[in-house]
């Protein structure tokens, strides 16, 4: 295949108490149009992408090269035109989509014929946990667990009956900063209470009881209480979204984007109301991406 296109969806992760284990693919995309060539060249075609570095210092190239080396293959040259609808450092999985793109790039250029399981294991190793990379690869909602031995198990669900409202601020928040505010450990009683909330939310998400899921999302004890202070409009967005009919509102990934779940068709009403209150945000109605990463 001398020319091909890689498409990878954005993602939101954690979804309240699903810390480092739950993610959902969103219908915003990173797109790579690839032509096999003698030299490596990247061309960025989006305001959401940074200045183009030297090709071999490009993050996606480095991921692709590591994957090729892992399987004893040599990465040939390519001309890559990149477009992105995913803003950087906003909690919408921009780095995870790039990791998946790098793996897909190596798979295609080197003819590795990697399975979905292979790709997910490799991506989780790069990212450190599966919450963003799994939905970007598979599409839909993914609840995943990775053991200390590296075993990875997951439950996968697709549902097109939801509207997802994203409140994207005009400022960045690096994941490292958001992780620094988290406690190093939790007491047994804290862990038990937080796990109980998470267990009910997972069951509600899987069963499609989004009213209950939304309620439990907002009761997270693992990370949201610690990160709320980093987001100046945290309480305002949650309250106003609930008043407008959202099931629940959470921090997307490590933030600063926040996200509400709503019944299909209600997203536009909620978004219009919140946009009037949040002039420094882009408020958008999104959907769950059901396809995941694909190559055409």
From TrEMBL:
Q: Which GO terms describe its cellular component?
A: cytoplasm
Q: Which residues form the GHMP kinase C-terminal domain?
A: 201-277
- EC number(s) recorded for this UniProt protein: 2.7.1.39
Function of the molecule: Catalyzes the ATP-dependent phosphorylation of L-homoserine to L-homoserine phosphate.
Q: Which UniProt keywords apply?
A: Amino-acid biosynthesis, ATP-binding, Cytoplasm, Kinase, Nucleotide-binding, Threonine biosynthesis, Transferase
Q: Which reaction does it catalyse?
A: L-homoserine + ATP = O-phospho-L-homoserine + ADP + H(+)
Family classification: Belongs to the GHMP kinase family. Homoserine kinase subfamily.
Per UniProt, ATP binds at 87-97
Q: Does the keyword Repeat apply?
A: no
Where in the numbering of this chain does the GHMP kinase N-terminal domain appear?
59-140
Pathway noted in the entry: Amino-acid biosynthesis; L-threonine biosynthesis; L-threonine from L-aspartate: step 4/5
Q: Which GO terms describe its biological process?
A: threonine biosynthetic process
Organism for this UniProt entry? Lederbergia lenta (Bacillus lentus)
Q: Where does this chain mainly localize?
A: cytoplasm
Return the Pfam families for the record. GHMP_kinases_C, GHMP_kinases_N
User: Does 4Fe-4S count among this protein's keywords?
Assistant: no
This protein's gene is called: thrB
Could you tell me what this protein is called? Homoserine kinase
Q: Which HAMAP family match?
A: Homoser_kinase
Instruction: List the molecular function annotations (GO) for this entry.
Output: ATP binding; homoserine kinase activity
- Top enzyme class, one word, equals transferase
Q: Where in the cell is it found?
A: Cytoplasm
